[in-house]
Amino acid sequence: MASWLATVGLGLHWLLLGWIVVGGKDARAEVVITGIVVDGRELPLPAQDGGRDPVPIRIPSTARQIVFRFEGAAERKHEQNAPRPAGEPQLPAGTRLRFRLDGRDASWRDIPASGRAVLHFVDADGILIGGLDAAMTGETPGWRGTAEASDFVPRELVAVAPDNATGMFVSFLSHDGAQVVGCIGIDDVALRCERDGEVPRSLQLVPPPADTEPTPRTLSTVWHRAGTRPEMSVIRIRERPTPHEILAFIDDDPSRYGNWVSTSRLFSDTRPGDRVTLAWSASHSLGIGGPSTATYHGLPPGSHWFRVGAFRPNGDATGIEASIPVLVVVPLHMRRDVWAVGVAGLTGAAVLVGRSLSAQRLKRRLDELERAHAVERERSRIARDLHDEIGAGLTEIAMQADAVRSEVQGVASPEATQLTAGICRTAIDLVRSVDAIVWAVNPANDTLDRFAAYLVQSTEQFLDAAGVSMRFDVPASLPSAPLAGADRHRLLMAVREALNNAVKHAHAGIVTLSLHLADGRLQIDIQDDGVGFDPTRSLTGTDHNGLDNMRQRMNEIGGTFSITSTAGRGTLVRLTQPFVCTAPPRSESHA
Amino acid sequence: MRKINVAVVEDDARLRKTVERVIVNADGCRLAGMFANAADAIREIPKLAPDVILMDVNLPDRSGVECVATLAPLLPATQILMLTVYQDPETTFQAITAGAHGYLVKPVMPKRLVEAIHEVREGGVPMSRAIARKVIEAFRVMHEGRAHNQPPAASPAASASDGATEASEPLMKVSEAVLAPREKQVLELLVEGYSYKETAARLGISIGTVGTYVNRIYEKLHVSCRREMVAWSKGSG
Hints:
- The complex is a heterodimer.
- Chain A is of the alpha+beta class.
- Chain A has 3 domains: 19-111 and 291-329, Sandwich (Immunoglobulin-like); 114-288, no CATH class; 443-591, Histidine kinase-like ATPase, C-terminal domain (Heat Shock Protein 90).
- Chain A is built from 9 helices and 25 strands.
- Chain A has helices at residues 2-17, 74-79, 219-222, 336-352, 359-408, 414-441, 448-466, 485-504, 541-556; strands spanning 31-38, 41-43, 57-60, 66-72, 96-102, 109-110, 114-122, 128-137, 153-160, 167-173, 180-194, 201-206, 223-227, 233-238, 244-251, 258-262, 275-288, 292-296, 302-311, 317-329, 469-473, 510-518, 521-528, 560-565, 571-578.
- In chain A, the strands form 5 sheets. In chain A, strands 9, 11, 12, 14, 15 and 17 form a 6-stranded antiparallel sheet that branches. Chain A has a 5-stranded mixed sheet with strand order 3-20-19-5-6, with no helix packed on it. In chain A, strands 8-7-10-16-13 form a 5-stranded antiparallel sheet.
- In chain A, strand 11 (180-194) and strand 12 form a beta hairpin.
- Chain B is an alpha/beta fold.
- Chain B is built from 10 helices and 5 strands, in the order E-H-E-H-E-H-E-H-E-H-H-H-H-H-H.
- Chain B has helices at residues 13-25, 38-48, 64-74, 89-98, 110-121, 129-146, 169-177, 181-191, 196-203, 207-235; strands at 4-9, 29-35, 52-56, 79-84, 102-105.
- In chain B, strand 1 (4-9), helix 1 and strand 2 form a beta-alpha-beta unit.
- Residues 147-176 and 230-237 of chain B have low confidence and may be disordered.
- At the A-B interface, helix 5, helix 6, helix 7 and strand 21 of A face helix 1, helix 2, helix 4 and helix 6 of B.
């Protein structure tokens, strides 16, 4: 009887609590979009005050990753609310945040959130010695606004009792660590314990077995509430097949959770090796209440609205939302219309000299461009995958080789130790090389400032490993003007070649790297204080190859290469490339 | 000495295994827990309250940077070391502003990993030149951003030693975000390519003192970035 009252009481609390907060009179927005990060760069936000014509955020269609940050402002709102009726628990009601990008998402989306079902094993002293858990994630099919009215999905968890196990507990939680809000219903909970050569035993936990006792047991004698806010653990009545109590959670507090735990140790004669099956069925609708992010990878050109809505924990809309317009634009050099104008101009000229370019050929050219863009994206995806796979494997090889080296040092022959060290070094070099390739094909790095940052980092890494001192003369603040991937990679390789010469051949003590922009040129100098050489005397084969490589790389990107050296007085390698700063410092210039 | 409790967040199973072996065999370290994704880490690590967290930058469910941003405020006494494969200074810098205390570029040799765990426990791992370059730029931008409504930075004349501790009351707020002259000197030398050792020799201080200055720079960066974010989210609300 008591539990029925509790159920009604909690039900009332839920109704009264209702949606005071979001339904309040304050007109301030309940949800706020707090940031947009495109390929790692924070963009300024337009006003979200509901003004009629906010300026859309412009995002280039080449952007790989677009992250929107947002949060609910329920807490702030809560403080401004009228006092609650006496006796009502002071729950800071949580707003469940959903988002959508119109033009991309067909419906509102939740940030993935989960509750958990846990099977804990305990030893003779009641100490937890292990367990297994399963996540209940997102929304179950057939959700109808309340857990008890929705379709239930059967679930199962199978565990083997560990050493020293003498019993177990079952527990359900309304979160999995993140800022979850939502509703969960749990029914048909049963445990089954199997042991070789014995008849399996079963225990029904929800609904409580009514026929075994003279007075029917209720759920609250089998289960107790726990968690950081136990009031969120509630009992509900499910009508089908016949009205009966079920366990439920109404989690409206993102920072806390409710918990239902079985009251007594179950199967107290458990032995290690027993196979235990926890079966239950659940209905749930779960989302996130706290600050969150939504990430999109690649957006089609066009106009979109990114929207964040405030929802009740059960998924009902409140009608309160924040939104910002987003305009995905094709960068000038990739735009069909710009090319079309350009090509059309050429066509006109061609006609004048008596040769015509057919519409068909024009179309083919445009299709080629489109394909080239798709190929570029695909290439960077493959490079990333390779990097992740090969990078992890090579890292493993390097670390294991190093472990072997320290094991065998002083035990095995010096040659064996050296060989092992060699494997390690080679693996590390390969990781760095793959890294440089992936970095170069990533269009997010197509700017001068990113190039300079990477150049400093990789130079530092290389010279540190070689035990050579370094000086940098690279401006801390550089414009984010475009510098294409092919150029970046060749410049990087040329610098690396020069560094390699300074360390291996010149035996330099200090290497100075400087980078400057002047007179429409990008100039990179690599100066060392090594042995130098006499340029009038011929170089050996390998040195020649290195210099030829550098010269060729710079020629390929329309740049120059020069080397100045005097025997005993160090070497200066100078790389230049025509570079026009088409963007003002620190601005987005995608038209 | 008490052992350093280390939690590991790394999605690659092979690497997790290797790191486990390194930590279990290392003197003075104890493995507090290993996690393969951000959700598990965010759920479990606050309960373990480890001394040091080794955090992979790329996790399957969300980025290591977000994971740091969530965990760092919950665990003020815990030091977070990022493990990154990409040498991208951009990501590393984001992790630092989110609350990480250091970073290692994989592959990291076992000896170096254990060294770094001890270093970060004692205050911080060395700041690379590439990151120093980003830090100095970040301070410049933040300083310019609020130059119009804040008193000027502490004058070099007040540079007796450490700035942060002896700043007078009205300057307290500024000193949180503005580097003391010595800190600025250290940062500038790093940007110019000087090693810790060379910096120490140039300024006539010990290498340990260079490390202390760098730790203060990290702290000021954390404070400034947090405040920057708060101010910004309120302003846009």
